[in-house]
Specification:
The chain has 26 helices and eight strands. It is of the alpha/beta class and 587 residues long. Among the domains are: 3-125, no CATH class; 135-266, ABC-type transport auxiliary lipoprotein component (Rossmann fold), CATH 3.40.50. Helix 9 packs parallel to helix 11 (311-328) and helix 16 packs antiparallel against helix 17. The longest helix is centred in the first third of the chain and has 41 residues, at 85-125. The radius of gyration is 30 Å and the shape is globular. It starts with a helix and ends in an 11-residue tail after the last helix. The model is unreliable at 124-132 (pLDDT under 50).
């Protein structure tokens, strides 16, 4: 068949329009599923499966449209139907109307879905927390304007250093690095950024580094109308970089009529080469890879070798030891934690007002089970850095069962870092353990909007449903959990609650075989839920013996509440050497 005749035959058999109609209907169904799946809390895999099925069905539909035709007498093979131009024209009109109508519905549903999602995102970003500020700012990542575009570490580092100086202004709300730097490379206006971060101003700029010379351009923009309130360009020798940072921070504070804290002025600026190596090391650490951390450790040690009095380098080295050991098993953990403790103490020695150094020290002490010292140093970190979101969020995790305190800290962290969505998860987890179940569900749902396929969140949603007595809903959530440990862990709770004894016993046996040796605190939780408190205490003491890192969190789990009246509970707690304000007391 000639190509021209082939196309005519496609038109006669309505294959092209049948294909267009199929694609439009598929798009329409996709929009419908996009709306219904979150409303009815159905698994997102349904949408993926539907798209795959529709994609497979497309060529089959085209073959069907070629072979068969819909006639007034029903479905018949096209070859058996006599061609009638009038009937053919009527079919064309009907198909056109069908395609246009379906396309219109799909577009309407697309708009509805977009509006719905926008409203949900706005709801998250408009969370109100206590302690509002009259003045607020977000420091954007300064653009790298170097000739080879190879100094991103430097431009990011200088931006962050300016941010850190501004954080020291008590009357100024400064959005933390994680949220403000998330706009890097995005084409948004100052007004749009201001609306999302709830700030009155943004500070943006660029850095051009060539040899020992640096040009920094900075501008302060009012987010209400996008107007520029201040701008200045600094052409200086690299040795003057610290003066430029302070000068920019001072210019910004002058615009807000607030004062920069003067603690940093008492410290001597580090050697320029050492500072440059420190910025490189920090940039490598933030890549959060094993290779990046190993390279970061080498760089920061070079920095310390040049200038051993720079507190930030010692703090960075200490935090590298924590992250490298905890996340990537780099080196011997005992040796790394010991080296980390020494580095953190050095950081405090050279800068007694470093909130970050106290937080790093507290983290290391927590990992080495020196909880009283950890709590003291974390309190000091919060005192020195009350506006630092990372410190506030970390302190919430080290509140040792004092869940009210943890909630206050997380809410403060959200205020300064609204786009760090793990805070919503952590807030939901706190509310769950406090039996504030509606609030727990609300924040887990908020977290799921941004991370719908995140592991563990289905387990947590299932546990909230279970605590509310919604057992079938709990089972549906647990069945969607993809994390192997938490899937099996969650099934143990739900199957027991449903009275499915045989299945539950099989699940418990499977869990004990896989995890009882490595995860005794979680095993104790399962036995406590079953009401077998003797076995639960046995596993809790085993968790203490091997220093199970989950124990401190697990002690606040709801399953253990009935055990707090048992004398063995206070005996267990007394062995841990917790800070006085811990929340695990039987009283």
């Amino acid at each position: 068949m000639k190509l021209n005749n082939y196309f005519k035959e496609l038109q006669r058999r309505h294959v092209v329009k049948a294909g267009i109609a199929y694609l439009v209907i598929s798009w329409l169904l996709t929009q419908v599923l996009s709306i219904l799946i979150p409303v009815f809390e159905m698994p997102t895999s349904i949408l993926k499966s539907a798209i795959i099925v529709m994609a497979i069905g497309f060529p089959l539909w085209l073959i069907f449209a070629w072979i068969y035709d819909f006639t007034p007498d029903g479905l018949q093979k096209t070859d058996d139907v006599e061609y009638d131009s009038k009937i053919h024209a009527k079919k064309n009109v009907k198909l056109n109307r069908f395609i246009i109508g379906s396309l219109s519905m799909a577009i309407i549903l697309l708009v509805v879905n977009q509006v719905r999602m926008k409203n949900q995102m706005t709801e998250i970003k408009s969370i109100k927390v206590s302690g509002e500020f009259d003045s607020s700012i977000a420091v954007m990542a300064f653009a790298d304007r170097s000739p080879k575009k190879d100094h991103e570490y430097f431009s990011d580092g200088i931006s962050e250093e300016i941010l850190n100086i501004l954080v020291g202004i008590p009357d100024l709300k400064v959005i933390s690095r994680t949220s403000s730097f998330s706009y890097k490379g995005k084409d948004l206006t100052a007004t749009e950024i201001g609306e999302e971060l709830k700030v009155s101003h943004i500070l943006e700029g660029s850095i051009r580094k060539a040899g020992n010379m640096v040009r920094i351009t900075a501008q302060l923009i009012n987010t209400s109308d996008g107007s520029q309130e201040w701008s200045q360009t600094f052409d200086r020798n690299l040795d003057s970089i610290f003066k430029i940072q302070d000068e920019i921070a001072q210019k910004v504070s002058d615009q807000f009529r607030v004062s920069v804290k003067g603690d940093s002025e008492e410290l001597s600026p580090p050697d320029t080469e050492a500072y440059n190596l420190y910025l490189e090391a920090r940039h490598l650490k933030r890549q959060n890879t094993k290779e990046g951390l190993i390279s970061a450790e080498e760089k920061v040690k070079q920095s310390i070798a040049i200038d051993s009095t720079y507190s930030n380098s010692w703090d960075l080295l200490a935090s590298i030891h924590v992250t490298g050991t905890h996340n990537f098993s780099i080196g011997d953990s005992n040796q790394k934690f010991s080296d980390g403790l020494k580095a953190a103490k050095k950081a405090i020695e050279f800068d007694p007002n470093s909130a970050d150094a106290y937080a790093t020290l507290a983290s290391l002490q927590n990992h080495t089970w020196n909880f009283e010292a950890s709590a003291r140093n974390m309190e000091k970190a919060v005192e020195l850095g009350p506006n630092k979101a990372l410190i506030l969020g970390t302190a919430a995790l080290y509140s040792y069962g004092n869940l009210d305190k943890g909630v206050d800290l997380i809410k403060s962290a959200i205020k300064f870092d609204p786009l760090v969505y793990i805070n919503y998860y952590n807030l939901g987890f706190h509310y769950y353990r406090m039996n504030r179940l509606e609030e727990a569900q609300e924040y887990f749902d908020k977290f799921s909007l941004y991370y719908p396929n995140s592991q563990i969140v289905h387990y947590m949603k299932g546990m909230v449903h279970l605590a509310k007595g919604e057992k079938e809903e709990a089972l549906k959530e647990i069945e969607q959990e993809t994390h192997e440990f938490f899937s099996l862990y969650g099934k143990n709770f739900v199957l027991f609650a449903l009275g499915r004894t045989e299945e539950c016993d099989v699940a418990l046996s499977d869990f004990l075989k896989k995890y009882s040796e490595s995860d005794p605190a979680n095993t104790a939780d399962l036995y406590a839920f079953r009401g077998d408190y003797d076995t639960s205490f046995m596993y809790l003491n085993k968790a203490l013996e091997i220093k199970d890192p989950v124990l401190l969190e697990a002690l606040s789990y709801p399953s253990f509440k009935p055990m707090r009246n048992d004398p063995r509970w206070d005996m267990l707690i007394a062995k841990i050497n917790l800070p006085e304000d811990h929340g695990y007391s039987s009283r």
